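Key result, reporting period 2: structure in, sequence out.
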């Protein structure tokens, strides 16, 4: 387990973060803690790296990974349009467990799979994830597990499933039991359209409806 680094140990944290940055830069995969379950990460702007992520999980290009970002300014850089309801949601729930699907900027030079012109964005609250994101930029991140198996709640669990397909494992203790809540906000950009809750996770559907209004949600 030489490629697993305990982030509670200062020396291992420094080494692990340095090696994680190097791995991301050369297009390799890194397992990182988030505020929900552990994630396997790749440079969102390296198509070969994203394909490695898809292959490691045993998925297809029809299941593109979400993108983790270091802050709200990056939301505006990556999304073509951000409706007011989304700004209300991110003000309340970011950093945190809410993933939001929006139209992607058409000028972006990336290939996340069959996204149909959209991108799923989230700003996590994990200190380790945010520090790495601040140095690498946006990362394509999916739950750290093989497709069909439970999401990893520790770096060791992720390593059991993903093995040598990942270069560096960053361990920051046990993660949460639930993944992020995913909402599709593209409908809000059409007249009379509504936000759709794709997957309910750590943030309840009722909390979202209470914040932006039940009439704005399907």
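The corresponding designed sequence is given below.
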């Amino acid at each position: 387990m030489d490629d697993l680094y305990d982030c509670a140990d200062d020396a291992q944290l420094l080494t692990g973060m340095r090696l994680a940055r190097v791995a991301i830069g050369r297009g390799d995969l890194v397992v990182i803690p988030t505020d929900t379950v552990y994630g396997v990460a790749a440079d969102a702007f390296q198509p070969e790296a994203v394909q490695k992520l898809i292959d490691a999980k045993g998925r297809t290009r029809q299941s593109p990974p979400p993108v983790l970002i270091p802050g709200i300014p990056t939301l505006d850089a990556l999304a073509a349009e951000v409706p007011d309801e989304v700004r209300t949601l991110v003000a309340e729930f970011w950093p945190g467990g809410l993933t939001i699907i929006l139209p992607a900027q058409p000028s972006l030079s990336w290939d996340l799979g069959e996204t149909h012109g959209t991108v799923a964005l989230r700003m996590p609250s994990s200190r380790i994830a945010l520090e790495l994101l601040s140095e690498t930029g946006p990362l394509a991140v999916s739950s750290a597990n093989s497709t069909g198996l439970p999401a990893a709640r520790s770096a060791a669990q992720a390593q059991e499933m993903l093995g040598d397909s990942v270069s560096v494992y960053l361990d920051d203790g046990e993660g949460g039991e639930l993944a992020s809540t995913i909402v599709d906000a593209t409908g809000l950009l059409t007249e009379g359209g509504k936000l759709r809750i794709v997957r309910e996770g750590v943030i309840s559907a009722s909390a979202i409806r209470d914040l932006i209004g039940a009439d704005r949600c399907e």
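The first strand starts at residue 4 and ends at 6. The mean pLDDT is 95. This case is discussed further under Risks and Mitigation.
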